[in-house]
Amino acid sequence: MPYSPLVSVNSQWRLFLNRRIHVPVRDEDLVLDVGSGDKPSWRADVLLDRYAGAEHSAQRSGRSSARVTRPLFDADAAHMPFADGAFDYAICSNLLEHVTDPLGVANELTRVARAGFIEVPEAASAKIVDFPSHLWWCRFDETDPDAPTLVMTAKTTPYFDAEIDAYIERAGVRQALDDVLYRRMEHRAILYHWSGAVRLRTEGQLDPDFAAAAMMAPGHKRTWEAIAVRWVTSVLTARTRMRRRWVRVRYNQVVKPEFRRADDPILERRIYRVGDPS
């Protein structure tokens, strides 16, 4: 089908609603955002991010530091401090391609939540233009329609083909290619809605030196887009957020039994580190 600006706008709008607005939960459900970064989900009650500071800005595409708009737990997504089944729904958007142990994160998502949503970049698009902070090529294996599986293959270099990457850099067309790919974002992202368990397998072995370099690599900044998305999201979700404005979550309600506190405080909009008595 030839490219049509009108078709593209309509498809992008539907994709935006599916990715950012439509969260299939009830008002009373408790929602966790794992790897919330600078764009936490509007519906999340609790956030988790291991790298909240500005020194890890390469892992984000908007603000340099994570947005602490709700209670945020500073913890490893592969070793969450939360109790089994503490959440009804878990959102994990554009995190798994950054972590060294995506299978561990998938297992933790299954443990702490009953259902959820995962988004990762699709491999074919990423192999044209990817970001040096990404560690995995991601694809969705639907060979068995009853058990679709997210497959993550370890990257060995920041690019798929050295000669093509050198040409893109030499010709100065990286940003232009990125913009073209963003016009058809529905083909650039894998949206995985899961219930009961996350089906994920990894292929290959990550080189620790490559992973360390990726952590410090420059990110891709689309700050103006992040601001626009935040504004539109605020408008579209205002009614639900108003209904839920009095929701309060207690500390002991979400953490593992061994981390519970005698005072059992109501969670506030700040960073929590489990074991910190403050």
UniProtKB/TrEMBL annotation:
It holds the Pfam family Methyltransf_11. One of its GO terms (biological process) is methylation. Signal peptide: none annotated. One of its GO terms (molecular function) is S-adenosylmethionine-dependent methyltransferase activity. The keyword Transferase applies. Keywords: Methyltransferase, Transferase. InterPro entries: Methyltransf_11 (IPR013216), SAM-dependent_MTases_sf (IPR029063). The keyword Glycoprotein does not apply. This is Methyltransferase domain-containing protein.
